[in-house]
Structures are given as structure tokens and as C-alpha cells.
Amino acid sequence: PEAGVIALPERADGEIDAAIENRLTEALAKSECLVLGPAMTDRGSAGALIDAVLAADKLPDSLVLDATAIFAAPDRSESLARFGGDLLITANDDELAALTERPIDAE
Question: Taking a C-beta distance cutoff of 8 angstroms, is the pair 98, 71 a contact?
């Protein structure tokens, strides 16, 4: 298929359970692109997912960081810099400010 959505287990608070190594390994084995961050609200959980993806044996060709995953990215700048594929970040003003650790002029 052109695109697919993989249901992942949730914690009691509704956040994605980061202890999903087996599901993640299966998904990455047949994925060219992975989007992380949409619908997540916990920076720690998003960061754990980024870590799990970057530690996988088979990495996607492209990785898209969106929403909460962007807030987790600065703590992982070195490992993201070593990612060998295309890295796309879809940041709004607040996310860009968090990513660059600089205020964004609203004008």
C-alpha cells in the first residue's frame, strides 16, 4: 500500500507504550518512511520511540518528526545526526523554538 497505519499498544494514560520493540521491528522491516509524534502528548514517550527506532536493525529510508517528537529531538541531536536517511521535521513556531532552543519572532 501507499500508506499504512499500525496500531500500537497504549499505556493507561492513553500514550503509546514505548515497550513495543517487537511491533516496531516488524513495522520497520517493511517501511520506507516512518512518522513519529502526531497525537502524542508526552515528550518522554516520544523520545523513547525515537530512541527505539534509531536502535533498530533496519531503519526506514525516511523519518518524519512531527508534534511532540519535535520537542524530544534536541535531546537526541547526536543520534538523529547519525541517521543515514532523509530526516524531515514539520515544525510550527512553538516546535521550531523548542528544536532550536531559541525564541521565534512572531512577526
Answer: yes
Q: What is the pTM of this model?
A: 0.85
Are residues 16 and 45 in contact, defined by beta-carbon separation less than 8 angstroms? yes
The gap from C-alpha 28 to its chain's centroid, in whole angstroms, comes to 13
Of the CA atoms within 13 Å of residue 13, those in its CB half-sphere come to 9
Q: Which residues in the chain land under pLDDT 50?
A: none
> Scanning the structure block, which residue is given the C-alpha cell 533496519?
58
Radius of gyration of the chain (CA): 14
- 23 class by beta-carbon count within 10 Å (0-12 exposed, 13-18 middle, 19+ buried): middle
What 22-25 contacts at long range (C-beta under 8 Å, 24+ apart), as own/partner pairs, is 24/49, 24/52, 24/53, 24/56, 25/56, 25/57, 25/58
